[in-house]
Write a structure and sequence with these properties.
Layout: H1 2-17, H2 21-37, H3 44-65, H4 76-96, H5 100-105, H6 116-140, H7 157-162, H8 169-189, H9 193-210, H10 218-223
Length: about 230
């Protein structure tokens, strides 16, 4: 019995040894996604543990074992692309913060105060979640696969959208294109810095804006999306 099991294990090990870095990365990405979707957790602290393990620790350990850094680098191009990407997405966060559905959903995990201590504590935790998520989506499944060309930015949009299924409809609609935009920018920079800065600080800004009076008239901004088949 053990001999048969040992033979199967050896065969599987030999099969894995023949896989390319790209194939191994996609296989790991699929396994991590399935695990993430089957470990539903409530509360930001539990989410920190889950995402820290699945989206950050496992991909980084896998990459380091293969001599890959998954875009964990900073240089002039990365800083420039981070500033440009952040400037591009800024209006989306400002407009989004005025929409009723977004204001009802955010801030997540019970934050209801803009007081410095609770807000900054929440912001730091959320930034960590963004770093973990970007390491997985833009690191393992994009920058880490850059040898295949810029098309790798289209590897994860469907998965990324699925993980946003519980978010406001307008955010779900934009999640796929956003994944591609962030991926292409990180690919160009060969760094995760652009998506981490634009996504992380964008979410922090969104929380801050939602906790205060809208900068734009909500009825006006909601009217811009009347053509959509859902209420924003």
């Amino acid at each position: 019995m053990s001999t048969a099991a040992d033979a199967r294990t050896a065969a599987l090990r030999d099969r894995l040894a023949t896989l390319s870095w790209y194939q191994r990365s996609v296989l790991l990405g699929g396994a991590v996604t399935i695990a993430w979707m089957n470990v539903p957790l409530q509360g930001i602290d539990a989410r920190l543990l889950r995402d820290g393990l699945l989206f950050l620790a496992i991909p980084m350990a896998f990459a380091l074992a293969h001599g890959n850094r998954l875009g964990w680098r900073v240089d002039r191009r990365a800083v420039k692309d981070a500033l440009l990407l952040s400037a591009f997405v800024l209006p989306f966060y400002v407009v989004g913060s005025t929409l009723p559905g977004v204001r009802e959903f955010y801030p997540m995990w019970g934050l209801d105060s803009a007081a410095p201590v609770p807000f900054l504590t929440h912001a730091i935790k959320q930034l960590f979640l963004v770093i973990a998520g970007e390491t997985f989506f833009r690191g393992l499944l994009c920058v880490g696969l850059r040898e295949k060309g810029p098309w790798v930015a289209f590897v994860s949009p469907v998965i990324y959208a699925l993980l946003h299924a519980s978010k406001p409809p307008v955010e779900l609609l934009l999640s796929g294109p956003t994944d591609v935009l962030f991926g292409l920018t990180d690919y160009h920079a060969n760094s995760l810095l652009p998506s981490v800065v634009a996504h992380g600080f964008g979410l922090i800004l969104l929380d801050w804006l939602v906790l205060h009076d809208p900068l734009l008239d909500p009825e006006t901004t909601a009217g811009w999306f009347e053509w959509l088949p859902f209420v924003v």
